[in-house]
Amino acid sequence: MSMDFHFLLNNSVSISAALLFIALVVLLLIHKLQEKNGITKKKKYHPIGGTILNQLINFNRLHHYMTDLAAKYRTYRLISPFRNEIYTSDPANVEYILKTNFKNYGKGWHNYSILKDLLGDGIFTVDGDKWLEQRKVSSFEFSTRVLRDFSSVIFGKNVIKLAKILSGAAGSGQILDIQDLFMKSTLDSIFRVAFGVELDSMCGSNEEGKRFSNAFDDASAITLRRYVDVSWKIKKALNIGSEAKLKKYIRVIDDLVYKLIQTKTEQMHNPQDGFSALKKDDILSRFLQVTQTDPKYLRDIILNFIIAGKDTTAATLSWFIYALCKHPHIQEKISKEIKEVTDQEQLTAISEFTDRLHEAALEKMHYLHAALTETLRLYPAVPVVSLDGEEG
Fold this sequence. Notes:
Blueprint: H1 3-10, H2 12-37, E1 48-51, H3 52-57, H4 62-73, E2 75-79, E3 85-88, H5 91-100, E4 105-106, H6 108-119, H7 128-143, H8 145-172, H9 178-195, H10 207-225, H11 232-238, H12 241-269, H13 283-290, H14 295-326, H15 328-342, H16 350-355, H17 359-362, H18 366-378, E5 388-389
Parallel strand pairs: 1-2
Antiparallel strand pairs: 2-3, 4-5
């Protein structure tokens, strides 16, 4: 195979553009022939907003591109050589899909084929009984007081660590990538809640944790790009380009996850090794206490928990800080409310401040809650939900 052919296969934009151009020309010719022969049906379709090539070109500003289309059309189609997609931001349509006729809309094979390499048979990829089982289990686990209290302690500790990093940067005039810091902080927290192990990607003291963090972010990015890269299956079959990298990143992720599952399983079987009840509050331990589950199942379900808790929280916090910087008067009001509720004038350390951020105190911070809610409205953590449904 020539180097030129390798180059073309590695260049997603080039091969996608070529395939799309050929396919769209063929589709147009077929449609014209049908019109000429009078065999086209009179059927009303939503307007065409663009093609998958437009998504690929605008990939680095995809949310802005999709928002512009939603503002223009509310409901529209994006066409591609292999499947056409309908996008809607109409509240009536969203309610119909996610509530009224929810059973008709699952993830489908298209989403599963894209996500399964990274997320396996987790809740974000499966339908039917598998989805129902995981929804039931996760709802029960996250509603338990033990897990909520355990999570609060973990997030509190990482907040102190995060605050110290920010305080040190502010004192020295250092420039920080706040989103990257939030991503690492939330990953450390949700990883500790999930596996009961300290990852410490925020400070980078754990080399294995650093490799996992980088691999997880890179694997997530490549998996997302599959939605607009029509050549990803070819690259996967030939194990080249981004798909070869994805395979390598998933191997790094799996090496650590399966090692932790094996270690935790052995500890559960040998409680005399110092594995006390206090160390059984993480999600993995709780699953192992209920049933001796297949390692692959545990890997999939917990990785889905991590991806759900990491990016959504970090992205919302990043947008929240961005919005506060644009509206200093809102920032002042929030700061005033926090000081009043926590009686901050008498505090001398960050740890004292976090100790006062209990549920009762947070429930009194109405303005802060409103500002976070408005941030989610303007910059939703999950801006697009991809589903397959029966036509009808």
